[in-house]
Amino acid sequence: xxxxxxxxxxxxxxxxxxxxxxxxxxxxxxxxxxxxxxxxxxxxxxxxxxxxxxxxxxxxxxxxxxxxxxxxxxxxxxxxxxxxxxxxxxxxxxxxxxxxxxxxxxxxxxxxxxxxxxxxxxxxxxxxxxxxxxxxxxxxxxxxxxxxxxxxxxxxxxxxxxxxxxxxxxxxxxxxxxxxxxxxxxxxxxxxxxxxxxxxxxxxxxxxxxxxxxxxxxxxxxxxxxxxxxxxxxxxxxxxxxxxxxxxxxxxxxxxxxxxxxxxxxxxxxxxxxxxxxxxxxxxxxxxxxxxxxxxxxxxxxxxxxxxxxxxxxxxxxxxxxxxxxxxxxxxxxxxxxxxxxxxxxxxxxxxxxxxxxxxxxxxxxxxxxxxxxxxxxxxxxxxxxxxxxxxxxxxxxxxxxxxxxxxxxxxxxxxxxxxxxxxxxxxxxxxxxxxxxxxxxxxxxxxxxxxxxxxxxxxxxxxxxxxxxxxxxxxxxxxxxxxxxx
Length: 487
Ligand code: BES
Ligand code: ZN
Ligand code: ZN
Known about the structure:
Blueprint: E1 2-6, E2 15-20, H1 23-33, H2 39-49, E3 52-57, E4 61-67, H3 78-87, H4 89-92, E5 95-99, H5 105-120, E6 141-145, H6 150-175, H7 183-197, E7 200-204, H8 206-211, H9 215-221, E8 229-235, E9 244-249, E10 251-255, H10 275-289, E11 295-305, E12 317-318, E13 326-327, H11 335-349, E14 354-359, H12 364-369, E15 374-378, H13 381-394, E16 398-400, E17 418-419, H14 428-437, E18 446-450, E19 456-457, E20 466-467, H15 472-483
Parallel strand pairs: 1-6, 2-4, 2-5, 5-6, 9-11, 9-14, 10-11, 13-17, 14-18, 15-16
Antiparallel strand pairs: 3-4, 7-8, 8-11, 12-13, 15-18, 19-20
Helix pairs in contact: 3-5, 5-6, 6-10, 7-10, 9-11, 11-14, 13-15
The structure holds ligand BES and zinc ion (2 copies).
One zinc ion binds next to loops.
């Protein structure tokens, strides 16, 4: 998609989106465009229709009025843009003009970023396996029209283009059915992206995984016909003295629960149990695309969790990369098992300044925070604070929960170093986080995101749950804070 930023209006467009805060400033905007509307009528119609309304104008074709609430920062509610863009998707056409409301620089920038992001994400197609995908054609060109801040808006536009690209590819990967999206397939995609964008991937197959004694990953993989993979991604900044962010992503390409099998209702959604892996892969790619001045090192354990005669059973004791033994109480708590090796390998072999893992880890976090907010756990108050702020700025919220020692005894096992499930239906997301902590080699700046509720939800892109792209903007805000030296 081509993005233009301009002070003046283009000569024609298929759709013109006019954003405004109040009806008084709207009059000025409209007279510049030469659009004549009965404002009282517009006012009352908007009230009736909610925040947006479309009409037809002779010169500007489809005109969409979008009223913004001056009290609500737009980046925090991208939903209003998403709703509007998708509601009028069939009308948008090839060239969309976005008329910015006159306001301060920071606000203009965040409105432009959000609206551009949502316009580009309209290219998120769910129906690609249909005989006739029957999709509306994608927007080819967007022109942002603003009275001022042209240079800043141009920078925003070029960054947003890259952000949307990685979000779309991440969402596509999460939405891909599990019969296609095997561990091998994800690894191939990672290798392809790495080659094109300039970061490196080491891909371990089952032999190498055995050689490196990633025993926890192997234990989860035992019931699967698909070989596991273990990926190590690295992006190195050009400049010296850059800080290093360490990332780990849960890559369960399908979670049946294993021998502790899940009920069949909603089991199909478990193709999304690799959302953490998709996020970590896409974010590493983003850093390379934007040539950010930070280093990234990431591990991604990939496997299915299946029911089989060879599968790991409840009560089995398994090993792990760092050497701690695990009593498997519930084979459906497989995410923490493979993350044990992802975290163990990362913290033993690299020395990142921070370690952050992302995992669709527990149903418990959905009980606690629902579908709009991710669970955040950390042993470091500064890091937790920065991640919380990044989430607020990104419109991808997270909320910290405690990992106090009181909960640790839930993981004590009589036969192994620890067990993978307390057996009690309480504080599930917290004990899962405490389990992970045992494999971080006492890293002093570790954070864990439980993204089970936020990665794959009911949303405007489809009639069933599908990927949201959660996490890219949050991580981007976080490393931007880092790059600007405010840490
Ligand atoms: N992948 C699931 C968690 C999940 C649930 C993700 C719903 C997305 C939506 C995870 O592997 C799991 O099954 N967790 C169990 C753990 C329990 C057995 C200790 C859970 O939360 O029920
Ligand atoms: Zn599970
Ligand atoms: Zn799982």
